[in-house]
Amino acid sequence: MRISSYVTDGGVKSYGLVEGSAVRDVGEAFRNRFPTLCAALAAGALADLTDAAASSREVPLDTVVLLPPIDNPDKILCIGLNYMTHIKETGREAPSHPSIFTRYPSSLVGHAEPMVRPSVSTWFDFEGELAVVIGRAGRAIPEARAMEHVAGYTCFNDGSVRDYQRHTTQFWAGKNFDRSGSMGPWLVTADEMGDPAAQSMVTRLNGEVVQSTPISDLAFDIPKLIAYLSTVCELLPGDVIATGTPSGVGLFREPKLFMKAGDRIEVEISGIGTLSNPIVDES
């Protein structure tokens, strides 16, 4: 099942099941019970969405504005240095524990919406990632049970303002400029996706491949991340875990390669689809 969140041409926020070039607006039927996809996950209502889809209104995808699939998560937890190839290109040693930073929902846009290069920097980098969406709450989740807490997966672009990221040892400043990252185009449920480690990811800048990796190259796999993160805090339905980026980022290229207005960046993950965003300058 593929589920998108969006704003209709009438300005109404909703969500629905993607079928080809259209979406079944199940959010309309559940407006009072589950106003957002995050609320539906918290209620364990995915099966209800499937049942409602057959009688729900069909809306062409090209008439809606896609939002991040989870547009109001309690937490967006991002993992740094989590692909072996990326660790190697930075010249660092493999970490003994996951490196974690957070992003805010205001820093993300959905598929096809512009990512914004801030006026204070030209060091605007791409980072294609697989994002995991939590479906069941849990604290101190053991690795062996971790995948039971996954609702599904989506594509993520951890757009990074590199000079601000390097102002201190904390990544926060470079990761939270408004509308600097993206997530989408939809949530693919765990049953449809299958084993994420069997998938692969490609990032393209203006049609040219800049990153390419098997998901199996993760230094800390998804069960390890869920176990570690849930030791620190309770994971809630709708929480997003961005699992890290592979080698090929613009910062470590010679010459450096950063995104600019007029560019288009794409993150494609097998089993999910393609997240595509134009780049614009902050007005």
UniProtKB/TrEMBL annotation:
Fumarylacetoacetase-like C-terminal domain boundaries: 75-280
The name this protein goes by in its record: 2-keto-4-pentenoate hydratase/2-oxohepta-3-ene-1,7-dioic acid hydratase (Catechol pathway)
GO BP of this protein: carboxylic acid metabolic process
Source taxon at top rank: Bacteria
Organism phylogeny: Bacteria, Pseudomonadati, Pseudomonadota, Alphaproteobacteria, Hyphomicrobiales
GO molecular function, one term: isomerase activity
Family stated for the protein in its record: Belongs to the FAH family.
A Pfam family: FAA_hydrolase
Alphabetical keyword list: Metal-binding
